[in-house]
Structures are given as structure tokens and as C-alpha cells.
Fold:
Amino acid sequence: MSTVALTIDGREIAVPKGTTIFDAARLNGIAIPTLCHQQNQTPVGVCRVCVVDVGARVYAASCIRECEPGMKVQTASAPVVQARTTLIEMLMADHPTPCARQERSGDCELETMAAAAGVSQPRFARRLSPRGRDDSSLSIAVDHEACILCDRCVRGCDDIKKNMVIGRSGRGYTAHIGFDLDLPMGSSTCVSCGECMVSCPTGALTNKRVVDAQLEGDRLDPEWILQLPVFKGVSGTFLELNQGAVVKRSIPAGETICREGEFGSTAFYILEGTVEVSINTPIGHVQQQDAGGLSRWFRRIRSTLADRQAHTRTEESGRRYIPIDAPVDLPYEKPIAELAAGDLFGEMTCMSFHPRSATVRAKTPVVVLEMLRNVLDILQKNKTFRAELDRKYRQRALETHIRSVPVFAAMPPDFIGYLRERVELMRFSPGEVIVRQGDAADAFYLVRMGFVKVSERHPGGDVVLTYLGRGSYFGEMGLLGGGVRTATCTALDHVDVVKIAGEDFHLMLSRFPAVREALEKVAQERAAMNQRRAAATETVPIDDFLNQGLMEAQSLLVLDLEKCTRCDQCVKACADAHEGVTRLVREGLRFDKYLVATSCRSCRDPLCMVGCPVGSIRRRNSMEIIIEDWCVGCGLCVRNCPYGNLNLHAFGARRKATGCDLCMEHDEPSCVYACPHDAAHRVEPLTYFGGMLGIREQTAKGSTEGTSK
Amino acid sequence: MLIDRSHRGWAMASAAILGAAVVAYVPYTLRSAPPGGGTMLGLVYGTTAFGFMAYATLLALRKKFPIWRIGRTQSWMRGHLWLGALSLPLVLLHSGFLFGHGLTSILMWLFVVVWASGLFGAWLQHTMPRRLLREVPMETIYEQIGRVRAQLLDEGDAVVADACGKLEVEVAPPRPQLLPAASAAGPAVASHLLVSVLRTGSGGADAGAPLRDFYLTEIRPFLEAPSRRHPVADAAAAAVMAAKVRALLPPALHAPLEDLANLCEEERQLLRQERLHGTLHAWLIVHVPLAYAVMVLAVVHLVMALRF
Structure:
């Protein structure tokens, strides 16, 4: 091999031909500072911190400049150091001090270098336009402010790991690292291998540790974890950085792993043994005891639990399966199922912090991996694991999932078999649009996990039509109607959907007229409901009405404060009617001369529905909110209601969520009936306040008082 | 309850009953002596009046069982108002406008007081809610006023501590019975114990001295023990005081001063609410017990009159 002789800092050396100045200096114990260059990556010479004087017109970047015979190199002369210091100072001018990495471990390469060079306060002005942060990934935090565009992450991702996710986006001042087609990292095809994170010299890409998470169980060695088939292909670097985020637990038979309604933050993967998944809360909706005849004049309304056999309500959903946070649904009649080795449960709790949807008990001695969301996120992005999960879903859960939708309940097994391999399983990140209003309708979707927000565009802004959880479906209106999407569906959290292509959907309708009929009926009801809502969302001139969310309400309990003597008869009546626990509080915001009391408003944007782990709170087609009988009493809807209008009602040791039931057993809500001063009214706000707001009467629905049933 | 057009039906029915009663009464007065309680017509007047009074008294029972479906409470209330009002003229017609002696006299005078207090109550219920609506925009639930006051005091301390760097105040311990010295001395002494509390904030101490002094000498005592006689209880006087303090403060401390002014306004409104609420309901202390007394005496009067 031919060699090249040159002088570096006065020392004569010989190196193989093709060696860069940087490597030649390093081989001879001369350190040249650099930021963009690492030994395991191809040099690109973008940071220019490694400049040296080679006696030419300009300084050369030593990491890419090859040695030449007779070359005289100065790596630390005063002008070179001056130039290098100026470069560091310019980089520091755009770098937040201290960055996340410097704060956490004190080893941000740029800040360390700046400190060594004596650069504290850069003389240059900071950039005016912030580049922002990206927290969409569960395992890696992206701080574009701290990025110095050295491209070490780009080379780590593309050259070393061959994932081809990270690249450059934008130009000049707007230049930044981008993921895929400049998507948020969490929405990109990034597999969270962690290579970019370990390559990054600053705090631009840092590991998101789950703070203070102490999982009970055996801490696992990353090497051992990587031996598990389920972790095949997962980055060892990531596991090193997140030790303790996944533990092994051995649970004896009969022990409870998690309970329905409890909040948690972990998912479980069964390595050995069998677990039993069940709902122990009695299946029954809260029913007002029917006191017939003369006695109803004097009897209190008693809240009791009634199941579907004992008391059928109008628009009963007819659901045969209860959706839970596991790869199976529970049969309504006997809500118990089993999971075995290779099954994952608790995904929704882990990813979106929803309450546990069911109680899981070890049927045999079991060994499980309990993991935090960053580990689960890595697993879900692992193609091998994802494919295995999807295969199991198609095999075991797709059928019950399709049957859990009442209109598909009678679908024959052969057709489900036909669909089994044809459906597409898709995943969406929070905020991602699944279908957009006005686009061509080409598919039908079943929600497999997470919550989907359905909204409609109007001149006054977007209006939320509903939230759909597991077991719900959307997309039928576009397919049945004019072939155009009538609403926008957006992932509210981590959403998995089953996509049935348009042609399969139409084939299904042609083969099963009953399904077509049922779907058309639902589509008509939804269309009518949307129309009513659209009519009610014309521009309202009074800000207060909007600011207080009254526009969102469909039924309000209002107290006319010109008549109300603050005698609290309404509250007493409500408490008397509901076993001593009032469902209204005579407190709230004022609108004009009215007090809007805290009592269920049947909101148009029912936030109470978001996150219900078993999907038991829903909207009737009359737009009222009702709570189905498989409510597990976790209280999330109570917490989610922005107005404090929902309660938890105790039935022995178990609880069920309740809202104002309008005293359905009677002609009029007790609060209104008991008001001695004609001050309390149940009203439909747009109708009741229409005159005051200058809104023409939109709906002929109900009277203005006490009839919101 | 607003006495408005919606009462027209009751008003006309009451007027018709009163008119009929007066029309029936006139021939008696023209031909002979006024009909006494013992005459047939007098008995009719008396019985009708007693029925109306009994019905009016039953409103209390109706309110005790608000969910009984025996007619809307609102209808009972209207009946209570109009038939109750009608009962006094009928009683006067029954007695021939004489107040009698002994039991009868006591009964009559008591009844007049009940009737007048009822009329006064109806006027209060007609006017006071509107005053409350107008004058107390920050109204809260009456029973929660104490809790809101504690919050206002705490907020005031926090605002000043933040603005001035620190604030040393003396507060009554929340649960004196938990203090060993207090429990030994008994609850009466314990309730007077004070604990010195040092709150720290982020502001500079020197610039905020006028604000802190103003708070400690004027505002905090008002928030701690609200009284209508306190200078800050008068909005205009409080504004003048605040303007003087504002002149001594750097611009950065104008916002905390404004916050304190808002807390004082809320406290003034709570005082006003207490007063109006008290006025709105105080008349019942007279009206209700006397109404029961009247009913008892009326029954005694009925028994005595019919038996003897």
C-alpha cells in the first residue's frame, strides 16, 4: 500500500494514501475537535469545526480532506483556533443553553466544546423564528432548537441502520431534520431504534425516560430481552437506555393482575400460562324504579340496576360483545374470556392512560412482561411483532369484533372468513386524519382501538358530531351516499382501525340485504342528526353564549334569577328523587338573567365519551347521552365532563356513572316540578334563547320547557 | 316569585270569590245586623276562610316532600299567595269586622300579623331576587360563603407574598383541637390561638412595602373579618385608598394591587349577598311559627264555637 508523507503541527508523519487529515492526526495522537464526524460514519464536513490550515487559500475541513504528499498542516495555530472559536460561537448562537442533554448528563458536545473554547455569551443575535419541538414519539424527544444540522442522525438512520427515515427538510433558515416526508416523528415510519439518539452530539434527539416509573418485578438484562422472539429486531441501544421499563413478573394462579376501572400505565405480554379476563361489575344500567298507579304520587324514584332482559330501553344498542382493551371482546351474556402465551393486553391503558377495561386474573401460574409505553411503542413499531399481533387479531378477534357491531351480528362465518384476509389493519397517531370531509369515499372502517373524533366543517368552524370508540364504525355514509365523505374523522389518541375496502363493502351489502337495510337506517338517522346540528350552528352574535359552551348544549337546567329565591327546593327535590344524592348543584355560570345549573347538558361535543375503556357511554340518535349497562364505574367520564355534571352512583361495593336522568319516570324533572317560584326550567338552549340571540327558530323539536326526553 | 301576568287566573278567581262574598254580605248589612260567626253566612265565611288558611299552611308540608306528584309546587305556591291573601277579608266578613275578646281577639291579631308578614314576604320575593341578580354578580351558594371567604384571604396572602417577596401573617390554626396546648386549655381558648405563618414569593421586598402595609393594615383585616363598617367595605373609599397606594408603587406592582381590589370587591359582594339573602328569608321567622299558632288557635276557636 502506498503511503503519503506530510507534516502535522511540525511532526513529520506517514499515512496510507487516502487517509483524511483528521484520521492521520488521530493516529498520531493529535486531537482535532469536531462535531459532525464520528468514526463509524462517513464524513460529510458540514460543521467545519475540524478546520485546519493546509497552506491553501482557505482552511480545509480535516474530516474530508485527504492527506497529500508534502502537505504542511496546522491544527492549532492562533488563526485556526480563532476561526474554530468563531464557528462554535455561531453554532452556540442558535443553541439553547443548557440543552436537554447538557441538563441531563452534562455531555452536550457543542456546549462542552464552547466551554473549552471560552465561549459563554455569543456576540451574534439569536434566530427570531423558533424551530420548535416534536414530542410525538413516545421514546425520543426531538428539540429542533438544539439541532446544529450536523447530519449525524441522518447517517445513523440511513447508513448504519438502513431505516431511511431521517433526512433534511427545508432550506436556508428553515432547514431542519425531517422524518419521512417531514412528518412528526411519532407519525413517521421510525422504529425507535435509538441510533439517531446516540449519534446526536447535542440535546436535539434525546431519550424519553418515563420519569419515576418503578415497575415491580425482575429487572431484565437487555441481552436477555433480545433473546425473546417478541423483541426480535428491537434496538439493543434503546433497551440499554431504558432498563427497568420492562420487567418480568411471575404471578401465581388466582392472583389478580389488574382490576377494571383502575388507572394504570402499563401493558402486559404473556410469556407463559393462561389468564382470565372478565368484567365483575354487574351488567345493568341505572333504572328508575317504576312506581305505577296511585303510589307513584308518593314514592321516591329509586335507582336500581336493570339488565337488558329486565328493562329494555328505547334504542337499545343490542350489542352482543363488550369491547375491552385486549385482543378479544367479552360476550355480553357472560363477560369472561381467556388469554394465553403470546397475547398482549392493556394497550389502551398503556398508550393513552385510559382506565383498565376489565379484571385480569391468573388462571394458571403465569409469567408476564409488564412494560411502559415507550417499550410498547417500540414493540408496536417492530414489524415482526406487529405482524404477529395482526395475525392473531385476524384469527381470533376479527370475527367477534365484526359481530359486536349490531348490524353485522348475523353475518355468516363464511363471509367473515372471506373478509379475514382482505381487510387492512391500520394504525393512526393522535391528531392524524383518517378520512377528510369532501374526499372520495373508498372504504369502511371499524374502530379496533382508541377513539375517533367525527367532525363536520361549517362556516362557523368545525362541529364535533361524536366520538367513536372500539366497536364503532364510520365511513358508511359516504359509501351509501354520493361517494363523498360527509365528515372528517381524526384519531383522538392511538387508534387502530380495520379498513374494509369499498368493493368488499358493496359486495357485503349486495349479498346481505338485511345489513344494507340496517346500515341505511343508521346512515339516515346519523344524517338527520347531523342536519339538526348543522341547522343549530349558524353564527350566534353573543359571545357569552359560545364562551360558556351553551351552543354545545342540547338540554339545560336554567334558573331564572329574577324569580329564584335561593330556597334550594330544586336541589332538595333532586336529592329526594335520587336517594339523597343530588345530581344538580345550584351553581354555575350566568347567562343573562339565568343561572345555568350543573346538570347534564347532553352536549353536542360529549367529552364524557372520550376514553371510556369499555365504550359504555354513548349518544342516542336523539343526541342524548346514555350510559350502557356494562359501565365498570371507573369514573373517567365524570372527570372528563367539563361542567361537573356526571356522578358516580354506588350500588353496594360497585359504582356506575349517572347523569341527570330527567326523572324519566315522571312527566317533568323533579327539580322543575318542585320549584315553587317558576324559576327552574329544562330547556333546549337555541330554542329558549333564540329570541334573545336573534336566532330564528331552527327546530320544531320539543317545547321550551321540561321536555327533553 | 314574580307576581306577573302569569298570575292573572288566580287574581281573577280571587277577585271573583271576594266579590261574591261582599255581594252576599251587603243585603245583610242593609236589612239587619252584620252576619256574626254564628249565622249561616258567617259560618260559610268562616269555614271557607279556615279552608283557605289550612290550604296555605299545607304548603309547608308540600315543600317537605318535593317529589310527591300532587301538583306542581309552583301551583301550590300561587294558591298559598292568593287564597292566603283572600282569607283575611273572609275572616273579617265572618266576624262582622269585630275583633272580639280573649281568644278570638288574640287569634284575630295574630292572623293580621301573619297575613301582613305574608304580604311583606310576597313583596320581598317579588323584588329581592332582582336586586340580588343586579347587585351581586359574583353570587355564590349561601352556605359556601365561609369557604369562599377563606379562599379570598388565602388568595390575598398569595398575591402579596408573590409581589413583595414574603409576607408574615398570623392565622388561626385550621383545627385547634389538634394542638396540644389548645386541647389542654379547651376549645374556647384554642379558637383564639394564632399561628405565625411566613409565606414567600418571588418579588422584591423593598418596592412592595407600601403594598404590603396597605394589605396588612386595611385589606387583610377586611378579608379576615368582613364588616360593613370597615373603610374598605365602601367601594368609593376603597378606590381612593388604592389610588394613593398606586402612586407609591412601581408599575410592575399595579397588577397585584388590582388583584387585591378585585378580592375586596368580591368580599363586598359577599357581604351584600349575606344581607340581601337574610332580608329575603328573615320574614319567615315571623310568618311560619305564627301561621302554625294561628292554625292551632283557629282549631280551638272552631271547637269552642261549635261546641258552645
Notes: Residues 696-709 of chain A have pLDDT under 50 and may be disordered. DSSP finds 21 helices and 39 strands in chain A.
